[in-house]
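dumping this here so i dont lose it
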């Protein structure tokens, strides 16, 4: 008799398929989480992605000049700091060492100056986070951790909506893909 995959394994596979169908940044974030093993590794991966978001927001938010964009940079930066710090605190009960944070991530910051490059970088970092959070929702074994990550997912989805709109994209994609 063929063994059926467990719930966690089935959800991971489903998340990987969905991530593969999504945009590159979302898939990249999901791939990072899917490579992690247990809840502690998943949380560490999410914390490092949030730390990257803190770095990117700090580096590129000053490039936002069109109203109302400058008003979003600082509050969104604070959200990502809070997310990172919560994820690091969540590692303590798991007796896991926190990953090193506060490091530079220059590869995540565009070399091109200007607002368009800044918005693209912010949308990319939010996409990676959304992909990683989506995958973590399926992979985390602890319900309370899933609730915390789901809360972050909702906030980061709103961030992505702002940056999609600022980049001229439809801020809320269609419910269904149509056409060829």
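and the seq i came up w/
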């Amino acid at each position: 008799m063929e063994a059926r995959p467990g719930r966690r394994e089935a959800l991971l596979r489903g998340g990987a398929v969905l991530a593969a169908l999504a945009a590159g940044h979302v898939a990249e974030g999901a791939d990072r989480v899917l490579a992690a093993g247990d809840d502690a590794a998943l949380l560490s991966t999410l914390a490092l992605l949030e730390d990257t978001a803190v770095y990117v927001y700090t580096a590129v938010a000053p490039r936002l000049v069109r109203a109302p964009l400058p008003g979003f940079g600082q509050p969104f930066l604070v959200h990502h700091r809070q997310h990172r710090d919560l994820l690091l605190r969540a590692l303590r009960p798991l007796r896991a060492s926190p990953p090193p944070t506060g490091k530079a991530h220059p590869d995540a910051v565009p070399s091109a100056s200007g607002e368009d490059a800044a918005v693209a970088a912010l949308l990319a970092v939010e996409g990676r986070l959304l992909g990683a959070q989506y995958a973590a929702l399926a992979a985390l074994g602890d319900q309370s951790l899933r609730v915390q990550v789901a809360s972050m997912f909702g906030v980061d989805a709103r961030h992505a909506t702002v940056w999609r709109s600022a980049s001229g994209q439809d801020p809320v994609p269609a419910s269904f893909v149509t056409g060829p």
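The chain has six helices and no strands.
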